[in-house]
Specification:
The chain contains 21 helices and ten strands. With about 525 residues, it is an alpha/beta fold. The strands form two sheets. Strands 3-2-1-10-9-8-7-6 form an eight-stranded parallel beta sheet. The chain has a two-stranded antiparallel ribbon with strand order 4-5. The termini are far apart.
């Protein structure tokens, strides 16, 4: 096998779902079988820090004992457990607590040059040193778009933000060095500040030496990219990174952050050229990220075929038949069956990017949570050829019988598709019948609303079972609220329709409104509040 210093996976344990220790161990076993040697658990504040009771409060944070247990288990499987934290931005949960008000710049960004900021960071690194055997650490520092433009601006006036980030980075690196750590950090802020917002380039970008020479020696840059389907971008980005001294990491993405179902096909589409570029540029440190944006609705175990394929690509094996055969041998399950987990996000209508590659969509979340009366996405539904959710539900149900212990993944998504079999077009058909004053059709539709309520409850139970197998209980309350709210909302719509049909009301105001186009013309909204209502702010 090709010699990589690190070839690993990062699991997001900060977006509602914190994986149980038992589930992390199960994933470690999977990674070991596939040839991975590194695991990062992305924890913004979901780990215990001595003297900081509000750090990860009510969030299912890992205790010191749990981290040590995971660390020891990973080590027994030849896998290095690397802490993956934040030291600047992405402290969304933490900044809600008044106890941390003094160290907030703006949004979720820590206040640079505030002594209390570095006192907290020192405590964090002391915790890492005590609980992890690795002396590598991912310090984050990505997507701090508004750094220096909040309270820092009020206190110190405007400062060059490149210099500000480098100043903070040097302070963080000294704390890391104090505890014996070599750090790696996401590199996007160096690019975004230079290009005024953009990260990715198709031609190498020139950086001044006052930036490239000021990155501390014990800090390595991580180029992250989950999006591009052509090798040109990856090559240009690696060339741009080579201007900085020190080692370069690459972080790709196994797509699981777009609703309930994975996008393994898109992971293959983007990571195949990425791994070709990794091989070409002789990159020794690779991390495949598994994010859980907006609720960690998708199981990380649904990514096994993509993770296996990426590991094979990194060895120069691009033969599909060979990859599928190898997966079958390792997991005693069909690669093709596991790829069926992508089905709930498959649409009949394809959207292509400028290079002719298919764009990602997430109808399984967009259409599941779309309100049947408000009709935010109804224009998209009207343009879309019917998505065959009935067939998807059946395929997934059949596959569940063939995949052994992973049957619950297929069962859950089958039940989701069973909801969408009716609900996907329910709002469009309701509005159409109402505006046509077709009460006979509305009477039939009322029965469909009741059936949707029943099926949502069935899916709710299945999803809860999946959650309890893999995640700590904290964070599930978010899904109880979402799913319970959806069920109640569907019932409210049904009851209003019934009142209309019985003549108790003469108009349904929501169904009178003209529906305007929304979004970019694709099913690609992953923020729950943006899907369900225009009134949620």
């Amino acid at each position: 096998m090709k010699k990589y210093r690190h070839f690993g996976v990062m699991l997001d344990c900060s977006r509602d779902g914190v994986m149980k220790v038992s589930a992390v161990k199960q994933m470690i076993d999977c990674l070991h079988k596939m040839g991975y040697n590194t695991l990062e658990l992305y924890t913004e504040d979901t780990y215990e820090v001595k003297g900081e009771p509000y750090f990860g409060y009510l969030r299912g944070r890992y205790t010191a004992e749990e981290i040590k247990e995971i660390d020891a288990y990973a080590k027994s499987r030849g896998i290095e457990l690397i802490p993956c934290i934040q030291t600047l931005a992405h402290y969304t949960a933490l900044v809600r607590h008044t106890e941390y008000a003094d160290i907030v710049d703006t949004n979720d960004i820590l206040l640079i040059d505030e002594p209390k900021t570095y006192e907290l960071l020192d405590k964090i690194f002391a915790t890492l040193a005590e609980n992890f055997t690795s002396r590598n650490v991912n310090i984050g520092m990505d997507e701090a778009h508004m750094v220096g433009l909040g309270r820092y601006l009020d206190l110190h006036g405007y400062k060059n933000r490149n210099e500000l980030i480098l100043k903070h980075l040097n302070k963080v690196s000294k704390i890391a060095e104090k505890y014996g750590f070599t750090a790696h950090m996401w590199s996007d802020m160096f690019f975004r500040l230079k290009t005024k917002g953009d990260y990715y380039v198709d031609e190498p970008l020139e950086f001044p030496e006052e930036i490239t020479k000021k990155v501390p020696e014990n800090v390595e840059l991580v180029y992250w990219d989950y999006y591009h389907s052509t090798q040109k971008t990856y090559d240009a980005m690696f060339e741009s990174h080579k201007q900085f001294d020190g080692n370069i990491w690459f972080a790709g993405g196994a797509w699981c952050w777009n609703g309930f179902a994975p996008l393994n096909w898109f992971t293959e589409q983007t990571m195949l050229p990425a791994m070709k570029s990794v091989l070409k540029n002789d990159i020794k440190d690779v991390m495949i990220t598994c994010w859980g944006d907006n609720g960690k609705e998708c199981s990380f175990f649904s990514l096994l075929p993509a993770l296996y394929a990426v590991r094979q690509y990194a060895e120069g094996n691009f033969d599909k038949a060979s990859i599928e055969k190898g997966f079958q041998k390792l997991f005693k399950a069909s690669f093709a069956d596991f790829m069926l987990l992508d089905l709930p996000n498959k649409t009949e209508r394809k959207f292509l990017d400028d290079n002719g590659n298919e764009k990602v969509q997430n109808p399984c979340k967009s259409l599941f949570y779309s309100d049947p009366f408000m009709g935010i996405l109804d224009n998209l539904v009207s343009q879309e050829r019917a998505i065959p959710f009935t067939d998807y539900a059946l395929q997934l149900k059949k596959a569940a019988k063939r995949v052994g212990k992973y049957d619950y993944l297929f069962d859950t998504l089958s039940k989701l598709c069973s909801v969408l079999e009716i609900k996907a077009e329910l709002g469009v058909r309701t509005r159409r019948a109402y505006q046509a004053k077709d009460k006979k059709t509305l009477t039939r539709i009322c029965k469909e609303f009741a059936e949707v309520e029943r099926r949502i409850a069935i899916f709710h139970t299945a999803f809860l079972d999946l959650w309890n197998r893999e995640n700590k209980p904290q964070g599930w309350e978010v899904h109880d609220l979402r799913l319970g709210g959806l069920e109640r909302r569907v019932k409210t719509c049904r009851e209003k329709l019934q009142k209309y049909l019985k003549g108790k009301i003469t108009v349904i105001e929501e169904l009178e409104e003209e529906i305007l186009p929304y979004g970019d013309g694709t099913f690609q909204s992953n923020v729950h509040t943006w899907i369900v209502s225009m009134s949620l702010v």
